[in-house]
Amino acid sequence: MIDIHCHLVYDVDDGSKNIEETELMLKEAKQAGFTDIILTPHYREDYFTVPCDEIAKKLQEMQKKAETIGIRLYQGNEIYATDRIIQLIYDKQAMSLNNSRYVLFELSMREKQINTDQIIYSILQDGKIPIIAHPERYPYVQKKPNLLLDYIEMGVLFQSNYGSIIGQYGKEAKETIKLLLTHNMIHFLGSDNHRTNSVYCSVRESIKQLEKLIGTEKMKNLIYINPKAILEDKPIEIIEPTEIKKGIFGFKK
Question: In CATH, what number does 2-231 get?
């Protein structure tokens, strides 16, 4: 399996605090079944702002630990949505996933940002592919999950968290991710792991639930085939999404 979203780089954001904690998380990731991990520390202007060259130095030390464990590491970022995403990448303040065409970014957890469309257009116009992180956790997506349809049509891809499948982010996120998965609106899964004894320890349970929900072939797309396309900087073939029908009690059925 390939993890495209995690916070294992130590002492840069709200993830790992030191190299020892990172090593423990790498061991947990290996036990969960991961062979490759794209490191995606937060980049948020005026808050988490460690530039790419400093991340690269830490990565060198992490690589030594990872090699003995049997995991390959790659560099990237989870960038907080801003009109300056492309400029941040050119300035080497933030980075696409493994320096590929794929750009992982997150939106506000509170309300839909009015500049979301403009941010997406700026990424697309630069020849890159936007990936929005964990849509199932956003309250405005939970209320209107079909919002994702228009974005997918624009060329946006979506990454959900393993933990959401088993309710680690609450009931609303759990119900929403099931709807998104069964209507082909999710293209990658990631751990979004921040600490030890957390998501990596429950990934196997998440995969069992995932396979029951969407079947083996679709599951492989999300946890290996599509993530591998990121590492190789190749396009992915998406399955046509379908509209979520609203039932008598709303979307959550």
Answer: 3.20.20.140
Measure the CA–CA gap between 2 and 159, rounded to whole angstroms: 13
Q: Which two tokens stand for residue 215?
A: 């079947």
Pairing of strands 102-106, 129-133: parallel
Domain boundaries, the chain: 2-231
99 DSSP assignment: G
Dihedral pair phi/psi, residue 129, rounded to 5°: -115, 120
Q: What is the pLDDT of residues 188-217, one digit of tens each?
A: 999 999 999 999 999 999 999 999 999 999
Extract the tokens encoding 82.
């801003």
- pTM to 2 decimals? 0.96
CA distance 40 to 21: 16
CA distance 149 to 240: 10
Q: 25 in the Ramachandran plot: left (φ > 0), alpha (ψ -120 to 50) or beta?
A: alpha
